[in-house]
Every structure is written in structure tokens, then in C-alpha cells.
Amino acid sequence: MLYHSNSKSSKHSGQSISKEDFEPIKVIGRGGFGKVYMVKKRSSGKVYAMKVLCKDQIAQKNLSLKTQVEREIMEKIKSPFIVNLHYAFQTAEKLYFIMDFLNGGELFYHLRKEQRFNEQRSRFYAAQLICALECLHKNGIIYRDLKPENILLDHDGNLRITDFGLSKSGALGGGNKTYSFCGTPEYVAPEIITGAGHDQSVDWWSLGALIYEMLCGHPPFYSQNQNKMLQDRVQKKVQMYDFFSPEARQLLHALLERDPLRRLGNATLIKQQPWFKSIDWKKLMEKKLKPPFIPKVSSPDDTSNIDQMFLRETIKETMPMVNMNSFTSMQKNHFGNFTYIANKQSNIISSSGAGSPSTDTQTVNTSQTEDKGYKGVHSKHFEDINEEEDDENGDHGEMFVEIVQSH
Ligand SMILES: Nc1ncnc2c1ncn2[C@@H]1O[C@H](COP(=O)(O)OP(=O)(O)OP(=O)(O)O)[C@@H](O)[C@H]1O
Ligand SMILES: [Mg+2]
């Protein structure tokens, strides 16, 4: 057992890991606090995705705890449908996550290209997402940012979710709620907008919004006017298209239920919905179901499914805007114990719980999707995370044990 403090590289039993071990090849994504690169591990030639976060930007927004939560979740959770973290380390200015590089492309990229998916393809992705969310919920985690940009396909066409930057860790249970105002406008649940307090059921709302978008090409309540989009969600009934099958409509009614107490709120019940009748859940978990779409990928470092917008970016890392020395030791210490080297333990957990469907939605008989001016470009996520409250409920302040496993 070894605890690591604020060191530049991780050293354990002769193994050490730092940014020098990885050669940046291309930019593959951009986030709120830095870039994501495709990198090669110099010693093995293996390709990974490296997410880099700038400490100064995080500390300026007092969000240092969120990076600890993100790292902890990725360390703790092992699921076939959640991105694998291999290493985490830091320099004086930056935090680094080394993950599997999923080169099948964002679900966002494919959905934008094809506009909408058929029910069979949507069902397959929805089923894998249910398993991912079920695993997180069982571990006391609310994901809070389910959207097509955070869902990545692997070269076989199976998906994994990434980005735990908005997640809440620390089981709520017993009707307890959390009050952070965060999410992405197109997918955020009404109770987050109203500030009524929320729990894990916000993820099931977002799943409903995502299934809706996969089926018709735009999210429910979409408007170019963001205020209207948020207001409609708490006031209006959701429009259904008549090309949605009755089973799909039944599921969407149940998930897009405004009242979280009446929303279909647990994985077991969702899996039993008629829309999922054809899914063999055991085979799905074992990845034995043939994915409905196989991305064209020629090698582990093929980036043809990554948006050109990112690939054109220079791989040069940006330098911090402010001197880290200007931060208080408390702010700096929040980045301590960040280092992580993965082991191969698995932590896949099954589902349980109760919930009830509802029908607080409206069916509109339209065979064509309305032109809502939706270009598939989503709003930026917003975050006003109550870190004190998160800290009380979770255990993020603790130090973490590293278990070394060779790769
Ligand atoms: N493991 C990965 N493999 C391939 N691409 C990835 C991987 N992780 C992230 N990406 C790409 O980088 C993009 C940004 O990453 P991510 O969503 O983690 O950052 P973010 O949105 O800035 O998160 P945060 O909320 O922490 O600011 C993703 O949408 C995805 O396109
Ligand atoms: Mg993201």
C-alpha cells in the first residue's frame, strides 16, 4: 500500500509514470478545461487517449474537487460500457488522465451524420447506456451529463461513456437530494432547472431525451432560444412523432416524466419495458450481441471517425494563464493524491430498486420531424456545483491507495 502526494510522476515498485512516457500524436477532443489527445506510450507503442486539464482554470472556478471526483470515479468503476482509466498523474500546471482511446467516434458524430437512427440501432445504444448508468447508480454515482458527445464508440461498434466532470459521488439514498445546478441544456432534467433538488433519476430523464433524439434527430423541447427550451421543459408536454413505435412512445412517456417521483426510475424496470423485449441483457453485458453499426476503423490509431475540427488543432499544449503560486495552499492541495495506476480488478454491479411509469406527455401525429433549426450543435454544459455539499456527502477528501499493474 502506498499513498502518493503532489508529485510530478507516480513511482511505485520501480514503476513510474509521467507525461514524458507519452508522445502526443493528435488532438481528438476539446473540453471546458483543456484538450484530449491521442497519445502513444513510448515504451509499448500502445495508443491511448490523454485528457489534460489546466489547474489554473479549474482553481479559478473553485472546481478542484470536481477533478478529484472525476478521477476517483474512473478509478473505482469498471464496466464494459464505461471508459477505462489506466493512469492519472499531474505536473505543477496540469492534470492528466490516460484512458483507452475509443476510435469509433462520438455518438454525436454519427448521429449528426445520419440525422437519426432506426429503432433497432437506438435500442442497442440505449440498452448499453442503461447498463452503464445502472453500474454508476449502484455505486452511488449520479452521472449528470449524458449526451451524445460523451458517448464514444469502440472499433466494434459498442459504446462507452466518458467524462465524469459533472458527476456526483456519494450515495444519496433515503430520499436525500442534491442541489447543484449543472448539466447540458438539451438533456438536463426539469428538477435541476427548477432547483427542486435531484437524485439519480435525473440520469433516466437524460436517457429519455437521448433516445428521443436518436429516434427523431433532435432533443425533446428543442429551441434555438435556450431560455425557452428550459422553460418548455418544466411547462409543456413532450411531442411524440407518429413514426415512433407504440413501445418507444411508452418508454419515452415513462422516462420524460416531469415529476421525478413518477418517472420510471430504475434500471430493472426500464429493462422490462416492451421496447427492450428483444434484448438479451446477459449477452449484451458480455458484449456478445452484434452491434448494429461497425465503424470503419483500420488500426488502433485510425482517427477517421474523429471530427476534423479537432484533428486540425495543434498538438502543442497551452500554458497556464496565471501562476499557480498565486493560489492558496488549500486550493493547491485539492489536486493532491491525483496519481493513479490501474489494476485489473472488475467492479461490475447489477441493478435493483423501484419506480413507476407515468404518461404526462402529449402525442402529436406528425410523420416528419419538424424543422426546429436543430443543427446538432449542443449548448455548452453549465456547472454551479456545490462543492461543500458534495464534500459532505462523499468522501473525496480521503487519500487513495495505488495498486500497480503492468500494462
Ligand atoms: N477515451 C477517449 N477516446 C476517444 N475520445 C475521447 C476520449 N475521451 C474523451 N474523448 C473526446 O474528447 C472530448 C472531450 O472529453 P471530455 O468529454 O472528457 O471533456 P469535457 O467535455 O471537457 O469534460 P469536462 O466536463 O471535464 O470539462 C469527448 O467529447 C470526446 O470526443
Ligand atoms: Mg464532455
Automatic annotation (TrEMBL):
Entry keyword set: ATP-binding, Kinase, Nucleotide-binding, Phosphoprotein, Serine/threonine-protein kinase, Transferase
Kinase as UniProt keyword: yes
Entries under InterPro entries matching the protein: AGC-kinase_C, Kinase-like_dom_sf, Pkinase_C, Prot_kinase_dom, Protein_kinase_ATP_BS, Ser/Thr_kinase_AS, STKc_AGC
Natural source organism: Halteria grandinella
Polar residues: compositionally biased ranges: 351-368
Residue stretches making up the Protein kinase domain: 22-276
Protein name from the UniProt record: Uncharacterized protein
Residue stretches making up the AGC-kinase C-terminal domain: 277-350
UniProt-listed SUPFAM superfamilies: Protein kinase-like (PK-like) (SSF56112)
Sequence segments annotated as region (Disordered): 351-407
A GO molecular-function annotation: protein serine/threonine kinase activity
Top-level lineage group: Eukaryota
Pfam family, one: Pkinase_C
Skewed-composition ranges (Basic and acidic residues): 369-384
